Amino acid sequence: MSQVKVTPVDVAVGILMKPNGDVLLGQRPAGKPYDGYWEFPGGKVEAGEAILDALKREFVEELGLHIVSAEPWCGVEYVYPHAHVRLHFYISREWHGEPQSLEGQAFAWQGEVGVEPLLPATIPLLEWLDVVRREAC
């Protein structure tokens, strides 16, 4: 029996980075897969939508923040039991507003990441991100 190839879902993910290197993590709200796990904020890219536009939309919808600029950083594919995702990570050092919990989610600025549990696709990126954060300081 051959396996059906599933097209990955494109997801725009934003890493907000303060001048001191701290980054914003959000906790997945109740009712979503992996609820309670911590991740970098973002969401699905809609059909015909540019990835950066999706990122900007998601940050307004989830956190009430307006991204001024963001640079593409890396891409990661990850297969969860519920979905095959293609994560497009952007780093933003410029935004307007303060994070608000518009979907009832917790969020936290982290230097050394101390929140748990972390979404599995996030874990390998933390070491790479530490290099970027050291360069930013």
Please, could you describe this protein's structure?
Keywords: DNA damage, DNA repair, DNA replication, Hydrolase, Magnesium, Metal-binding, Mutator protein. This is 8-oxo-dGTP diphosphatase. The protein is an alpha+beta fold. It has one domain: Nucleoside Triphosphate Pyrophosphohydrolase (Alpha-Beta Complex). Helices cover 20% and strands 36% of the residues. The protein has a four-stranded mixed sheet, covered by helices on one side. It has a three-stranded antiparallel sheet with strand order 3-2-7, with no helix packed on it. The longest helix is centred in the C-terminal third of the chain and has 14 residues, at 123-136.
Task: Identify the notable features of this structure and list them briefly.
137 residues; alpha+beta; Nucleoside Triphosphate Pyrophosphohydrolase; three-stranded antiparallel beta sheet; globular
Question: How far from one another are the termini?
Answer: 53 Å
Q: Write down how many β-strands occur, each being a DSSP E stretch of 2 or more residues.
A: 7
What is the makeup of the main sheet? 4 strands, mixed
What is the H-and-E element order? EEEEHEEEH
The CATH homologous superfamily corresponds to Nucleoside Triphosphate Pyrophosphohydrolase
The rough form would be described as globular
Counting H and I runs of at least 4 residues, what is the number of helices?
A: 2
Any idea how many domains?
1
CATH structural fold name = Nucleoside Triphosphate Pyrophosphohydrolase
Low-confidence region ranges? none
Q: Structural class, judged by helices and strands?
A: alpha+beta
Question: How do the strands of the widest beta sheet line up side by side?
Answer: 4-1-6-5
Fraction of residues in H or I helices: 10-25%
Name of the level-1 CATH class = Alpha Beta
Mean pLDDT: 91
From the alpha-carbon coordinates, what is the Rg to the nearest angstrom? Answer: 15 Å
Keywords: DNA damage, DNA repair, DNA replication, Hydrolase, Magnesium, Metal-binding, Mutator protein
EC number: 3.6.1.55
Cofactor: Mg(2+)
Domain Nudix hydrolase: 7-132
